[in-house]
Write a structure and sequence with these properties.
The chain is of the alpha+beta class and 488 residues long. Helix content is 53%, strand content 18%. α1 packs antiparallel against α4, α4 runs parallel beside α5 (225-274) and α6 packs across α9 (432-442). The longest helix is centred in the N-terminal third of the chain and has 59 residues, at 2-60.
């Protein structure tokens, strides 16, 4: 948990720093753009006025002396002009300005030097006289058409008010930037929590699950990918929980299934060993029959476990041959007829003629049929009926139906799961249908179970008429040449 908290802080600090630097860089660019916009606008306005006034001086201002010409020029300047307009001689000394004064100092700033060299130029800096920030634009004054420079026309304006406006905009930009950084940091923290909290939940739940707490669940905080991961984890946990419960029920059931025959075998063995039945041949015969039956029952349970284990690890073997389904079903029917008649349960057989041949393991298919018929026998009451039918509908279908009470709707989706028993009090390992399902799937078929609300259960074994054996699926033995082949 501490690692996730440190990771959260690291993510917020890292990405917050990146975003803060980005915002500050953008703030700097914005401030530079604001300053450039204001200064360049003022410069452009002054430059246009200087150029117009200089052209006017050259064409229309008469006079002999520089002072007279300057007076004529400045008299044409607008009275509302905010800029200081000056006429300078060739030494940079003011001849006259728009305020009507002749100042006693020389201008040596860059714009004046450029104008004396015949170029219009702008300059931003501090005024040598007042110390305030100014923008000055100077242009050469020429006599008539000769282009000879006779003086300099200089416009200057204070930038103090402009820079105060710019500073206020800087402050607004900084405030907006700080607000953006704060919001981004909050968003980063929120996103980090949104990402890391589900991971933290999953980490804690995974540790608990690994420690054996199969009932652990994770809170699904969202519907995004992490939410789907939490839902998947919960599904996995529920499946493990169900598997754990099924395993415990199986162990309890199998323990009971083994204890009952072992108790009978032990009891009858002790009775026979004691010699008390030496003069009672009928009871001796009964005891031996019970021992044989209980031994067969235990062997069946062990065989189920062995078959399931082989299916799980993929070591099941199929002995393939061409099988006539009707012959196989008839053989199983004849095998069970007497047994079912003793239980007063009817068994009917309905075969569709001319079924296609299939390539299959007849012993394994018989095992599937016997599992289904044994289940039907367990649940069909006396005077009930079990039917076996065959038909061809794209696939070859073997149907086993009974008239028992049926399967509860809540049990039907899980009835083929390993160790699942809808009624845990009934005998059996809960592996029969799971084994049947795996064997049918090895034949590339399907095992479909239906149980309507009216009662009874119908199980369909659907087999393809031509099985496309896939390399690398399992081992198989062909009875035609008695040679085991490994499809790899």
């Amino acid at each position: 948990m501490s690692h996730l908290h440190s990771l959260k802080r690291h993510l917020v600090a890292r990405y917050g720093a990146i975003i803060a630097i980005t915002v500050l860089l953008l703030e700097g660019l914005c401030m530079f753009a604001i300053r450039s916009y204001y200064v360049n606008t003022i410069e452009q306005v002054l430059s246009n006025r200087v150029q117009l006034t200089a052209d006017y001086y050259q064409k229309y201002v008469p006079g002999v002396t520089p002072l007279a010409r300057a007076q004529k020029l400045l008299s044409s300047v607008d009275k509302d002009e905010v800029a200081l307009v000056e006429v300078l001689d060739l030494q940079g000394q003011p001849v006259l300005d728009s305020d009507g004064f002749i100042a006693d100092y020389r201008h040596t700033t860059p714009e004046v030097s450029a104008a004396l060299n015949g170029q219009q130029h702008a300059w931003v800096g501090k005024s040598p006289l007042t110390g305030e920030k100014i923008l000055a634009v100077a242009a050469p004054l020429c006599r008539d058409e000769s282009r000879d420079t006779v003086g300099v026309l200089r416009y200057s304006v204070s930038l103090e008010q402009t820079f105060r406006v710019i500073q206020r905009l800087y402050i607004y930009c900084l405030l907006v930037g700080l607000i953006v950084i704060a919001l981004v940091l909050a968003l980063c923290y929120s996103l980090a929590c949104r990402i890391l909290l589900p991971i933290e939940d999953l980490t804690i739940a995974a540790k608990r699950l690994g420690a054996g707490a199969h009932d652990v669940r994770v809170r699904q905080r969202s519907q995004d990918e992490l939410g789907q991961l939490a839902a998947t984890f919960n599904y996995m946990s529920s499946q493990l929980d169900a598997a754990e419960r099924a395993k415990n029920e199986f162990l309890s059931s199998i323990s009971h299934e083994l204890r009952t025959p072992l108790t009978s075998i032990k009891g009858w063995s002790e009775t026979l060993f004691s010699g008390k039945l030496v003069d009672k041949p009928n009871q001796t015969q009964l005891g031996l029959e019970i021992i044989c039956e209980e031994t067969d029952r235990m062997i069946g349970l062990v065989e189920d476990l062995l078959d399931y284990s082989r299916l799980q690890v993929g070591h099941i073997t199929l002995s393939l041959e061409t099988v006539e389904i009707n012959d196989l079903v008839t053989e199983v029917y004849q095998q069970l007829t007497i047994r079912l008649s003793e239980r007063h349960i009817g068994l009917t057989l309905d075969l569709q003629q001319q079924l296609p041949l299939v390539e299959a393991d007849d012993d394994r298919l018989k095992q599937v049929l016997l599992i289904l018929l044994d289940n039907a026998l367990k649940f069909t009451p006396p005077d009930g009926l079990i039917s076996i039918r065959t038909r061809f509908e794209q696939d070859i279908v073997i149907t086993v139906a009974d008239t028992g009470p049926g399967i509860a709707p809540e049990d039907l989706p899980f009835i083929k799961n390993k160790f699942y028993k809808g009624n845990s009090k009934l005998p059996g390992s809960g592996l029969g249908l799971s084994i049947a399902q795996n064997i049918v799937q090895l034949h590339k078929g399907r095992l479909e179970i239906a149980s309507p609300a009216t009662g009874g259960t119908t199980v369909d074994i659907c087999l393809p008429q031509s099985t496309p054996w896939t390399a690398g699926t399992y081992n198989w033995t062909s009875k035609a040449n008695s040679t085991r082949q490994n499809l790899s």
